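As noted in the main text, all predictions were made from sequence alone. Below is one such record, for DNA helicase RecQ.
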Amino acid sequence: QIATPMPVTPDVQSILNDVFGYHEFRDGQRDVIQAALSGKDSLVLLPTGGGKSLCYQVPALALSGLTVVVSPLISLMQDQVAQLQALGVAAEFINNSVAREDQVDIYRRLHDGEIKLLYVAPEKVLQREFIERLHHLPLSLFAIDEAHCVSHWGHDFRPHYCQLKQLKHAFPNVPMMALTATADTATRRDIVHQLALQNPFIYTGSFDRPNIRYTIEEKFKPMAQLMRYLRTQQGQSGIIYCTSRKRVDEVAEKLSEAGFNVAAYHAGLSNEERQFVQSGFSRDDIHIVVATVAFGMGINKPNVRFVLHYDIPKSVEAYYQETGRAGRDGLAAEAIMYFDPADIGRVRRFFEDIEDEHRRRVEEQRFSAMAAFAEAQTCRRQILLNYFSEYQRNPCGNCDICLNPPKRFDGTLVAQQALSCVYRAEQRFGFGYIVDVLRGANTSRIRDNQHHALSTYGIGKNHSSEYWLSVLRQLVHHGLLEQDITQGATSRLTEASRAVLRDEYTLELAEPRLQAVHVYEDKLA
Ligand code: ADP
Ligand code: ZN
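Prediction:
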């Protein structure tokens, strides 16, 4: 009852030229297409913008039957179908937004063999009635776009996707192509397993995005840092990611007050509002979108010049995906993250509320890799690509570490000053307060506590507060200080700090990196 795929137009090259108007296949496309034409399952791992769609669109046209594309996002489906129709390709989509009578019409044309590519939402494709219809059609290929959604390991797990292996069971002879831009090895393995792919052909493209410059800036006064950066970006398109809706609204409001052309986007907004922001952004009416992770998949804007993370993302995949929305046009773009080491503890505590034990462990592990990435002092791109099993021998020359290598210095004296200040302030204050004492700030709180009389009061006024904050954070990393988060992040000395205070060894610290962006400008000039 099921048509085995039979190439009727083996000349995929002419499809590429005549239908799509391109001259050559990109790396991997031809092999993947060949696998589909010969009836093999496949797994295609290509970064965003790598050209995944063509991998199933060309076989869809080369094979005699119907290609069913499962895609999780309505806007994505609509875009692709509109593009294909503009090229004269018989493509349609079916999801719950399509009116009943239009669906009936599509079904009629499907049965008449007038449609080559049908895009469907996963929940639709799994309906028994729909599967029943498919049984009466000559199927060439299933393409599962954004296939990482099947995986609990993936950053965007969707329960409907999990059941897609039913398709493989219902149509064991129809080849299935799974495509994703997510690359970590655990997710890859899981996709093959979850979709029940049979001995698939696997193609892994390079995940490097050489035009994106990665920068991690220590977070001090993030709003001020943000404004300073945005002023260098006059009128350019960018996305600012924050972890909570509340933060999104706050940041968007402040930027808007400061005169930036900005809109907020998160799942708490109505469909219309979100649609408005998304299309305004793609038309360049809106320059900057402040968003939660809800803003993402399906944004196909080529000229996003910067993606900025106001908070640390939950996984390296999420970071890679989000930063990957910058520079799709291949021109220089920036990925900047503001990083406060204390956020690591905050995010970890958030995971404690996850009830499902397995899920919690997965999240924790994924976040640990992200935290390690944020804290690392070696080439960002090397770490990122190594994480995706793409070993890089040389540092990239286009990240903050490569452009502005961290300098080490003998931090024993400043460490002693900071540690004794914590000690004399009776170990019951947070970093902000300690920094104020060190710098001799004239605040009522300090006077009330009589701390202007401490010997460490004003001892560090020759350094900025950012400098001291960075030193204090490094002391935490070195295990010399600890913060009690249950007590308003009050800081305490650890046992290990004694040796530093007694001058028993030299403590190397990293030179605080205060104005990364400006340093680059000098270097590049
Ligand atoms: P992905 O789905 O992997 O993010 P797309 O399929 O949207 O990527 O392709 C990204 C862009 O590259 C599109 O504009 C597409 O038309 C273009 N493209 C894909 N393959 C080729 C090719 N062989 N030659 C030229 N352009 C291509
Ligand atoms: Zn680098």
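The pocket of adenosine-5'-diphosphate (ligand 1) is lined by residues 22, 24-26, 29, 46, 48-54 (CB under 6 Å). The two ends are 67 Å apart (CA to CA). These features were considered when defining construct boundaries for the mutagenesis experiments described in Section 2.9.
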